[in-house]
Amino acid sequence: MTKAITNNGLHPALLVAQRVVLAIVFVLAWWLAARHTPAFILPGPDRVLQALGALSRTDSFLHDIGMTMYRVVCGFVLAALVGTPLGLALGSSRALAQVFEPLLAVMNTISSAIWAVFAIIWFGISNATTVFVVFMTAMPLILTNVWQGAQNVDKLHVDLARSFRMTRAQVLRKIYLPSILPYFFSGARLAFGFGWRVSLVAETLGSSDGVGYRLRQAADLVQTDQVFAWTLLLVVLMLLLESGVLKPLERRLFRWKPV
């Protein structure tokens, strides 16, 4: 199989063409549905694009996008810094895993909306509210994936490292860390997507700027075209980050893996 063929056997050009056709079908269906629906319920693509253009000319447009991205990145980085070493520790120690597994299960069952309520009580209307919610949503995902990766480390490699009298820190750094990187990136991409979405919930409840705050403001004023415009912008930004940053970085780091 040549490099020009993707994992599912499709040529990249054919894959792009299929996705373009899918997008066109979606827009046509949206346009047809909007023609038979009041604009305050379902605005058409043209009205949404006009609203997006009007929003982009406001003074707060770039500020709101920048603040949302800043909060998401801060929460995500903190989640990675905390979740990765904890996942390594739990994956390499059965005793620690047995102690902390119930706590992780509890954290995974608490919804982001509840974390947002706690964050407002503790931090008020501030950046910390959104950062905390993103952190509490993303960290368990990263921790769980890293934990799973650490459990799948080849025990023969660990025993060999110990036979060379490597310290526990060296075993973690040279054996466990390279092995868990694919699991980390899998969890990180999932966590970033969830973090991006829950940031809107947090900003809706506990911020005075940002995309989530603008969405709530537009909804309160029944400006449905602006709600759709902000939503469309978020989807585009997420796709750009996914295809322009996360996927290329993952391919570069794991280019040694067979296709």
From TrEMBL:
GO BP terms in the entry: transmembrane transport
Gene Ontology terms: cellular component: plasma membrane
Cited InterPro entries: MetI-like (IPR000515), MetI-like_sf (IPR035906)
Gene3D superfamilies: MetI-like
Subcellular location: Cell membrane
Topology of this chain in the membrane: Multi-pass membrane protein
ABC transmembrane type-1 domain ranges (all copies): 65-245
Homology family: Belongs to the binding-protein-dependent transport system permease family.
Protein name: Nitrate ABC transporter permease
